C-alpha cells in the first residue's frame, strides 16, 4: 500500500480510528516523541494528523477525504480532493500548488489553481505570503529583507520596505505616496493625493509635517531650524519660529498674539484675546504661569525647571512634569492619567478615563502595549523583537510571533487556532471552531481538550 493510500485508509497505521474515537499507542499517550497531533471536528472527522517521524500530516474532511499530507522525507505536501482522487500539487498535475513544502523547506502553502500564488516561502527565507490572483502581490518578503507587504492590485504599493531600509509604507493608488522613507532617512510620511504633502521630512532635517492642501503650509521646518508649524490658511500664522529662536507660536487671526517668544527668551505664550495672560514666561526663566480669565492656573513651571503643572478651574491637574524630566503626566478632572512619561524614557503611558492603558513604551524599547477600554491588549512588542501580539476585545490572540521566528499564531474569537508555525517550518495547524484537539509536545504533555460546548477537557502532563 502506498503512503497516500495509507493516509486515506480508515485507520492510520492502526492507531487512529476515524469513526469518532481517538486511540493512541502507549508510547504516544502522555508524551513520548509527541506524535499524532490530531484535530477532530464536530463531525468526527480529523484535521491535521502528524506521524511519529513528522510524516503524514494528514487532514481528513467530513467526506472521509484527505487534504494536506506530508511525506516521510518532508517532501510532497499532498492534497486529495473530495472525489477520492489525489492531486499531487507538488510540481505536477495541472501545474497548481496548494500547501506545498519540499525537502529543502521551500514553498510553504503555494496555490496556483489559476496561476496564482498564496503564501509562498522559499528555502532561503524569501517570499512569505505571495498572491497574484490578478497579478497582485500581498505580503511579500525577500530573502534580503526586501519587500514586506506589497499590494499592487491597481498598480499601487502599500507597506513596502527595501532591503537597505528604503521605502516603508508606500502607496500610489492614484500616484500618491503615504508614509515613504528612503535609505537616506528622507521623506517620512509623504502624501500627495491632490499634489499636497503631509508629514514630509528631508534627509537634512528639513520639512517636517508640510501640508499644502489649499496652498497653505502646516508644520514646516527647514534645515536651519527655522519655521516650525506655519499656517497661512487665511493669511495668519500659527506656531512660527525663525532661525534666531524667536517667535514660537504666533497667531494674529484676530489681531491677537498666541504663544509669542522673543529673541531674549522672554514671554512665552502671551495671549491678550480678552485681556488675560496665557502661558507667560519672564526673562529669568522663572514662573511659566498660565492664568486665564477665570483666575485659574494652566501650565505652571518654576525657575528650577520643576513642576510643569496644569491645573484647571476645577482644581484638577493636567500635564505634570518633574524637575528631573520624570513624570510627564496628563491627568483629567476625573483623576485619570493621560500620557505618562518617565525621565529615563520609560513608560509613555496613555491611560483613559476608565483606567485602561493605550500605547505603553518602556525605556529600553520593551513593551509597546496598546490596551483598549475592554482591558485587552493590541500590538505588544518587547525590546528583543519578541512577541508581537495582536489581541482583540474578546481576549483572543491574533498573530503572535516571538524573536526566533517561531509560533506565528492566528487565534480567532472562538479561542481556536488558525495557522500555527514554529521556527523549524513545522506545524502549520488549522483548527476549526468545533474541533477537538489532541496535542502532544516533544518532552512535554499530551493534552486532550474539548472546546466549550463539547463539555470535555482532559489534560495530562508528563
Element-level helix/strand string:
HEEEEEEEEEEEEEEEEEEEEE
Shape: elongated
- What's the total helix number? 1
Largest sheet: 5 strands, antiparallel
**Strand-pairing-aware structural class:** mainly beta
Mean pLDDT: 38
Which percent range fits the helix content? under 10%
Residue stretches low in confidence (pLDDT < 50, at least 5 long) are 1-462
In angstroms, what is the radius of gyration?
30 Å
Strand content: 5-15%
Write up what this structure looks like:
The chain is mainly β and 462 residues long. It has a domain at 1-95 and 438-462. The protein contains one helix and 21 strands. It has a five-stranded antiparallel sheet with strand order 14-15-16-17-18, with no helix packed on it. A four-stranded antiparallel sheet has the order 3-19-20-21, with no helix packed on it. A three-stranded antiparallel sheet has the order 4-5-6, with no helix packed on it. It is elongated and about 95 Å long.
Short key terms for the protein model shown above:
14% strand, elongated, five-stranded antiparallel sheet, 462 residues, 1 helix, 21 strands, disordered N terminus
Layout of secondary structure:
Blueprint: H1 3-8, E1 11-12, E2 16-17, E3 38-40, E4 67-69, E5 78-80, E6 86-87, E7 277-280, E8 289-291, E9 330-331, E10 337-338, E11 350-351, E12 357-360, E13 369-370, E14 378-380, E15 389-391, E16 397-400, E17 409-411, E18 417-418, E19 436-440, E20 446-450, E21 457-460
Antiparallel strand pairs: 1-2, 3-19, 4-5, 5-6, 7-8, 9-10, 11-12, 12-13, 14-15, 15-16, 16-17, 17-18, 19-20, 20-21
Amino acid at each position: 500500500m502506498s503512503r497516500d493510500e495509507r493516509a486515506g485508509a480508515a485507520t492510520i497505521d492502526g492507531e487512529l480510528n476515524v469513526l469518532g474515537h481517538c486511540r493512541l499507542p502507549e508510547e504516544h499517550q502522555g508524551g513520548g516523541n509527541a506524535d499524532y497531533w490530531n484535530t477532530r471536528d464536530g463531525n468526527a472527522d480529523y484535521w491535521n494528523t502528524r506521524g511519529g517521524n513528522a510524516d503524514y500530516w494528514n487532514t481528513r474532511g467530513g467526506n472521509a477525504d484527505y487534504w494536506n499530507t506530508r511525506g516521510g522525507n518532508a517532501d510532497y505536501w499532498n492534497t486529495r480532493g473530495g472525489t477520492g482522487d489525489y492531486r499531487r500539487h507538488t510540481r505536477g498535475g495541472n501545474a497548481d500548488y496548494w500547501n506545498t513544502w519540499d525537502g529543502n523547506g521551500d514553498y510553504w502553502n503555494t496555490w496556483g489553481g489559476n496561476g496564482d500564488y498564496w503564501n509562498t516561502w522559499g528555502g532561503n527565507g524569501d517570499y512569505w505570503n505571495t498572491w497574484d490572483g490578478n497579478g497582485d502581490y500581498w505580503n511579500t518578503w525577500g530573502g534580503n529583507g526586501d519587500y514586506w507587504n506589497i499590494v499592487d492590485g491597481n498598480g499601487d504599493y502599500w507597506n513596502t520596505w527595501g532591503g537597505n531600509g528604503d521605502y516603508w509604507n508606500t502607496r500610489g493608488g492614484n500616484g500618491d505616496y503615504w508614509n515613504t522613507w528612503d535609505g537616506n532617512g528622507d521623506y517620512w510620511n509623504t502624501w500627495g493625493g491632490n499634489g499636497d504633502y503631509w508629514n514630509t521630512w528631508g534627509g537634512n532635517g528639513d520639512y517636517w509635517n508640510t501640508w499644502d492642501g489649499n496652498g497653505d503650509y502646516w508644520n514646516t521646518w527647514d534645515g536651519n531650524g527655522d519655521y516650525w508649524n506655519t499656517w497661512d490658511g487665511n493669511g495668519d500664522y500659527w506656531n512660527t519660529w525663525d532661525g534666531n529662536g524667536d517667535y514660537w507660536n504666533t497667531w494674529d487671526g484676530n489681531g491677537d498674539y498666541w504663544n509669542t517668544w522673543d529673541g531674549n527668551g522672554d514671554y512665552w505664550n502671551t495671549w491678550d484675546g480678552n485681556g488675560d495672560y496665557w502661558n507667560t514666561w519672564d526673562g529669568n526663566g522663572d514662573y511659566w504661569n498660565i492664568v486665564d480669565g477665570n483666575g485659574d492656573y494652566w501650565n505652571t513651571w518654576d525657575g528650577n525647571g520643576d513642576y510643569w503643572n496644569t491645573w484647571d478651574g476645577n482644581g484638577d491637574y493636567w500635564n505634570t512634569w518633574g524637575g528631573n524630566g520624570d513624570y510627564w503626566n496628563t491627568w483629567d478632572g476625573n483623576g485619570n492619567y493621560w500620557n505618562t512619561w518617565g525621565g529615563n524614557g520609560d513608560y509613555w503611558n496613555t491611560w483613559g478615563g476608565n483606567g485602561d492603558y493605550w500605547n505603553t513604551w518602556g525605556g529600553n524599547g520593551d513593551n509597546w502595549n496598546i490596551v483598549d477600554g475592554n482591558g485587552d491588549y493590541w500590538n505588544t512588542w518587547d525590546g528583543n523583537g519578541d512577541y508581537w501580539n495582536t489581541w482583540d476585545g474578546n481576549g483572543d490572540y491574533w498573530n503572535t510571533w516571538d524573536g526566533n521566528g517561531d509560533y506565528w499564531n492566528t487565534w480567532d474569537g472562538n479561542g481556536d487556532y488558525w495557522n500555527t508555525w514554529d521556527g523549524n517550518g513545522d506545524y502549520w495547524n488549522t483548527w476549526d471552531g468545533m474541533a477537538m484537539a489532541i496535542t502532544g509536545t516533544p518532552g512535554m504533555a499530551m493534552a486532550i481538550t474539548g472546546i466549550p460546548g463539547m463539555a470535555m477537557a482532559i489534560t495530562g502532563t508528563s
